[in-house]
Each structure stands twice: as structure tokens, then as C-alpha cells.
From TrEMBL:
<dbReference type="InterPro" id="IPR050144">
    <property type="entry name" value="AAE_transporter"/>
</dbReference>
<dbReference type="GO" id="GO:0008324">
    <property type="term" value="F:monoatomic cation transmembrane transporter activity"/>
</dbReference>
<dbReference type="InterPro" id="IPR036721">
    <property type="entry name" value="RCK_C_sf"/>
</dbReference>
<dbReference type="Pfam" id="PF02080">
    <property type="entry name" value="TrkA_C"/>
</dbReference>
<feature type="domain" description="RCK C-terminal">
    <location>
        <begin position="139"/>
        <end position="219"/>
    </location>
</feature>
<dbReference type="InterPro" id="IPR036291">
    <property type="entry name" value="NAD(P)-bd_dom_sf"/>
</dbReference>
<dbReference type="InterPro" id="IPR006037">
    <property type="entry name" value="RCK_C"/>
</dbReference>
<dbReference type="GO" id="GO:0006813">
    <property type="term" value="P:potassium ion transport"/>
</dbReference>
<dbReference type="Pfam" id="PF02254">
    <property type="entry name" value="TrkA_N"/>
</dbReference>
<dbReference type="InterPro" id="IPR003148">
    <property type="entry name" value="RCK_N"/>
</dbReference>
<protein>
    <submittedName>
        <fullName>Probable potassium uptake protein TrkA</fullName>
    </submittedName>
</protein>
Length: 430
């Protein structure tokens, strides 16, 4: 097998050194004097030199194209396109043709002739982004994909806001962790995979989604409500509290949606004042967060109810809101008397201690864990009479309270004396 190099470009000597270590090399150069000087300077045992023009059909009769794995051209754009047409259309060559240059050929010609293009400025740009912007934490690919930021590798450090989080807590529309490298081994991760320091995450997706994911994982930038959608909806919520939220939540646009907020495309958050919207949120199963306003802004202190099966998206949203509003966060877990706690409650309590400590260390936020014993609804409402401005609740869309099956999140949302945020447990992968 062989690789054919066309033209003595600036980087050919280095390329010959690399390629000749794994394959035979055929070097085509029309300037015979320059070719001789190159061979004298860098003799290579498995290098064959062919003086002549690469656009000459006769020259190609001396080459075994069937054995050629690739043709790499350092010629001008015009000469490369001429050679590619000759190889593809006249000689039936089907293997890889690569053009190396600072100029890019016509995109249509690239597609028609099935060319691979390596742009030196683009490669250097990606390397510099790795060195300057990534600072050894974020690395961008060189020579693969569209090179528009749709593929990126992220190194998780001890100080990363994502350390020890599960992937389901980090999820972001338009971005997905495709692979994790841990201690030299690749892992295909599941949603419950827990990230550790030293892990390298290969993130793929829409460039904007990947950018938001990287910002959240590396710098702790809030992604609420963008992880749910890019549009804000509201129903007759135009008072000071609604304005307070609209000024701080980053969405593309705000639209009135009193009939059916679920009918709004890409809705990420909904604002409402009428208490009937609480019932509708549970009954209709909104797949996006909703604020139910009681006029208790600014949100200096947020109480998060951990008595929910939808804890992961709730905690992630609460941490984001704390960054957005500059709030303190209190995570409340109401359990049975310790002597009668079942194993699953004990495990949840230990996990909450770890999560709160991690959030405090990695975010710099004021995060506290409160544990009470007794009835979750009664104890939570009793605590809300104090200093809290916002109650954050997680819930499963479609699940609601019934006479013989009381549902704690709905009962709390209906009785809350302060503004309430409902965060649904939904699948955000799309």
C-alpha cells in the first residue's frame, strides 16, 4: 500500500517522515532540481520520486493507483481540482483525495469530487482555541466533523461544577455525552453515570447546545430555562414579579399563552398568577417548569423540597436559580422518625448530604440541608412561614393527588403562601 504526495509544499518533509513510517510514499513534483535537492536532504528508503506534472495522464500510468490508500495534494486549489477530476472521472480512482492549503476550494466541487480539505488556518485555529480558550480543560477537534463546535472534549476537574454529578443532572437539549474516557478506557455512559474528576467527556450535538453544556460544566453558567426550551410563555402575568423574572431569565422571546402553554413551540418556562394554573400544571402534565406567582420576590432565599421522585432536575434548576438571583438555597428533607426510617430514606438522606456539600464547594453558593421529621406537607408549610421567598418543587407530569393517594408536590403547590416553581421530570434528549 502507498500514499501519493503531490507537490513539495511547505510541510511535505514532515508529512513524508510521518507517512513513510507506516506506508510506502510516492512523491510527484514537476520541478526536477527541487526534487533532487529534497531527496538529498531527506533520503527515505521507501520513497519513490516521480518528476512530472500531476495533471499529466502519462505520469499516472507509472503509478499503481489500486495500491494507493490516499492522494494528498499540496498544489494550488485549481491544480488540485484538475488532478481530482482526472483521477475520479478518467482513471476511476475511488480512495481518499486530500487537499492541504490555506485556501478552500469551491464547496460544490469538493462534494462532486469527494475531496477531503485540510485548511492550515483552521487547524491552527483549533489548536490555539485548545491552548488559549480551553486552558487544557476544553479541547476542540482538529480535522474531523464540521469544525463548528459540534464536537468537543471536556476534562472534569476537582473544581468543576459537574464533578460527581450524574449525566441526567447535566443534560441539555441539543447536546449529548457520547463517550466518557476514564483511566484510559472508553465508556458508553447511561443517564445514571456519575462523573468523576479526571473523566474526559466527548460531547456532541448542535454547536449552540454544546456551547451551553460546556459553559455549565466548566464555569457553572446557568442553563435554566434553556435546558427545557428557548421561549418563555405567560398568562396575564405583567406585574412587578413577572418583570423581575423576565429581566433575569434568558429566553429568546416571551409570548402570551393563556389558552394552552403546551401549544407554544420550544417553551422553556411558564409564568402564571391564577392558582388554577397549579391544578392545570399537574393535570395536563406540563413538560416545562412553571412559576406560580404570589408576589414574594426578590428570591433571596429558596426552599427546595427533597420529598419528590423528580429530585435531579429540581436540584439542577435550583442551583441555576441561585446563581441567577443571588439566592441562598435550603434543601428540606422531611422523613419519618430516624428509628423507623426505611433503607431507601436513609440512602436518600446520605445522598442529599453529599449533593449539598458538593454544590457548596463547586459553586460557591450558600447551600444548606434541613432535615425534619413528620408529615412533609405540614412541616414544609410551617417552615415557609419564615424567611423564604420561593418554594421549588419537583414532580412527574401526569401524576396528581387523589383522595387515597395524596401527592406531596401538588398539595404543597396548592397551599404554598410564597411563589412556587414546579420543575417536571422529563426526558430532554431530542
Amino acid at each position: 500500500m502507498s500514499v501519493i504526495l503531490l507537490g513539495l509544499g511547505r510541510y511535505v518533509e514532515e508529512i513524508v517522515e510521518v507517512v513513510s513510517a507506516i506506508s510506502d510514499v510516492v512523491l510527484v513534483e514537476r520541478d526536477e532540481a527541487r526534487l533532487r535537492a529534497f531527496l538529498e536532504k531527506a533520503p527515505v528508503a521507501n520513497l519513490r520520486a516521480l518528476p512530472g506534472s500531476a495533471t499529466d495522464v502519462g505520469l499516472w500510468k507509472e503509478v499503481d493507483l489500486e495500491a494507493a490508500e490516499a492522494v494528498i495534494s499540496f498544489l494550488s486549489v485549481e491544480a488540485t481540482l484538475d488532478v481530482a477530476r482526472l483521477l475520479r472521472k478518467a482513471l476511476g480512482y475511488r480512495s481518499k483525495i486530500v487537499h492541504v492549503s490555506k485556501a478552500r476550494p469551491d464547496p460544490q466541487a469538493v462534494r462532486e469530487l469527494d475531496l477531503e480539505v485540510v485548511s492550515i488556518p483552521e487547524v491552527l485555529g483549533a489548536i490555539l482555541r485548545n491552548l488559549l480558550q480551553g486552558q487544557g480543560i476544553v479541547r476542540y477537534p482538529v480535522g474531523i466533523g464540521l469544525r463548528k463546535g459540534e464536537v468537543v472534549e471536556v476534562l472534569i476537574t476537582e473544581s468543576s461544577p459537574a464533578v460527581y454529578a450524574r449525566l441526567r443532572e447535566l443534560r441539555q437539549p441539543g447536546a449529548r455525552v457520547a463517550l466518557v474516557y476514564r483511566e484510559g478506557s472508553p465508556i458508553l455512559p447511561r443517564a445514571d453515570f456519575r462523573v468523576q474528576p479526571g473523566d474526559r467527556l466527548l460531547v456532541v450535538g448542535d454547536p449552540r447546545g454544546v456551547e451551553i453544556f460546556v459553559g455549565a460544566v466548566i464555569r457553572g453558567e446557568p442553563t435554566f430555562p434553556r435546558r427545557f426550551g428557548s421561549v418563555g410563555a405567560l398568562c396575564r402575568a405583567e406585574d412587578e414579579e413577572a418583570l423581575y423574572l423576565k429581566e433575569r431569565l434568558k429566553v429568546r422571546d416571551w409570548v402570551e399563552a393563556c389558552e394552552d402553554p403546551k401549544g407554544v413551540a420550544e417553551v422553556g418556562v411558564f409564568l402564571a398568577r391564577d392558582r388554577d394554573w397549579v391544578r392545570r400544571a399537574f393535570q395536563e402534565g406540563y413538560p416545562f417548569p412553571s412559576f406560580h406567582l404570589r408576589g414574594t420576590h426578590p428570591y433571596r432565599s429558596i426552599l427546595v423540597s427533597a420529598n419528590t421522585e423528580a429530585l435531579s432536575p429540581l436540584l439542577a434548576s435550583a442551583m441555576d436559580l441561585a446563581r441567577i438571583f443571588g439566592s441562598e438555597v435550603y434543601v428540606l428533607f422531611v422523613s419519618r422518625v430516624e428509628a423507623f426510617m426505611p433503607p431507601e430514606e436513609k440512602e436518600l438522606l446520605e445522598n442529599l448530604k453529599v449533593l449539598v456539600e458538593r454544590a457548596r464547594k463547586t459553586s460557591g453558593l450558600e447551600v444548606h440541608l434541613i432535615r425534619k421529621e413528620g408529615n412533609p406537607v405540614r412541616e414544609t408549610l410551617r417552615l415557609l412561614k419564615g424567611k423564604f421567598n420561593l418554594l421549588a418543587l419537583g414532580y412527574t407530569p401526569g401524576r396528581r393527588t387523589a383522595f387515597f393517594r395524596p401527592y406531596v408536590p401538588q398539595l404543597l403547590a396548592q397551599a404554598s403562601p410564597v411563589s412556587t416553581l414546579l420543575v417536571p421530570e422529563v426526558n430532554l434528549e431530542r
